[in-house]
User: What shape does this take?
Amino acid sequence: MASTSDTDPNLLEKITNLAKRRGFIFQSAEIYGGFRSTYDYGPLGVNMLRNVKQAWWRSMVQMRTDIVGIDAAILGPPAVWAASGHLETFTDPLVDCRKCKERWREDKINGVCPNCGSTEFTEPRAFNLMFKTQAGPVEGEGATAYLRPETAQGMFTNFANVLSTVRKKPPFGIAQIGKSFRNEITPQNFVFRTREFEQMEMEYFVPPSEAPEWYKYWIKARYDWYVDLGIPTELLRLHEHAKEDLSHYSKGTTDVEFAYPWGWDELEGIANRGDYDLTQHSNASGVKLEYFDQAANERYTPYVIEPAAGATRAMMAFLLAAYHEDEVEGELRTVLRLDWRLAPYQVAVLPLSKKPELEATSRDVLARLQPYFTCDYDVTQSIGRRYRRQDEVGTPYCITIDFDTLEDQSVTVRERDSTAQTRVRIDDLLAELRTRTGQV
Ligand code: ATP
Assistant: This one.
């Protein structure tokens, strides 16, 4: 399959609408007409985005002994960005359409203005993507600062701090999740490319001779992560950059690509960056960023393998891959087949009616599940309508409390994808859900 729109040409529009209507993603400052390319995450979106980041952190940090996390500052001094090369080379080629005056990133438009179809453009100019600001109270007098355009530099500038505090030795990694900012020339495709976004990056420091094997290892590990969280393999592929397209320091870059509605495009990049970053910061700061291998009595600058993913972009891919329309009892339904670990609500507790005796039992069921699962509690509308509402936002399990519950102390567990319903005793419910979600 070349894109998710092969099966549904309106998929992007449907996801954008659903995201807004059900509280995943809103246009930022909407009451003032919106602010282009910035988005706010609503009650369901914030749950899902946190779940994406948590799933990443779990696999990259919690489940390993060789990777530690940091949370570095977003504001940085020019020295960092001079050493990293961003001040000079973090640019995109900007062109103006001579006819309609729209501005475009030259490498993304195939020579034709997407707005008016003209093929006449100004000469490309290098446009630096970093947001520049001033730190200090007096306008015009403060120190220049930049909002980070990637989280990675925080790992390089803290390399010696981490090494001396956590007693790791190569191969080891430093991971970070956080906001990054790029003054993109043409932000587009909903949250695929925005000026403010969240990244999940890890710098894995290795002995230079081991770099090729770790590069391969991380390409596979990162591809598998998306598959494990439910993206079908036919919507994923690996794309290795040709040697002539690599940045001058890169010894290899492979993208994990996703079949977006507009075709294959980047989801994450995995790069073998050699010793470029640590060497640059060593030279510029005068602080040696090396590792001393006592056993071999040898000092060296580790190579870096970097898997760099976008949290907001990954969330969009998970939504696109999960969106399905099917038929249940002759009725069309929309269902997000999200992995339970990513779903905004993992369980919905639904008393059949608003009768006080049902509410009391329902509140008890809720209290038993809430410490372990993110739960919704919904008493409005018919039960059928409530199931559909939960299907549409991807809730894997609905628990219905009815009048029989008061007699047999059991509830109905309704599964999202199969719509199968089973009766489970309240006392067994937590264990049953933990088994079904593979936690025990
Ligand atoms: P592009 O060439 O598409 O601008 P890039 O190759 O410069 O992207 P990286 O610097 O490798 O991107 O960033 C790593 C990851 O961060 C990307 O794979 C993507 O998931 C995410 N990302 C980068 N820029 C943006 C953005 N403007 N909006 C949302 N996510 C982004």
User: Anything to note?
Assistant: The mean pLDDT is 95. The CA atoms of residues 237 and 257 lie 5 Å apart. Residues 345-436 form a domain with the Rossmann fold fold (CATH 3.40.50.800). The chain has 13 helices and 24 strands.
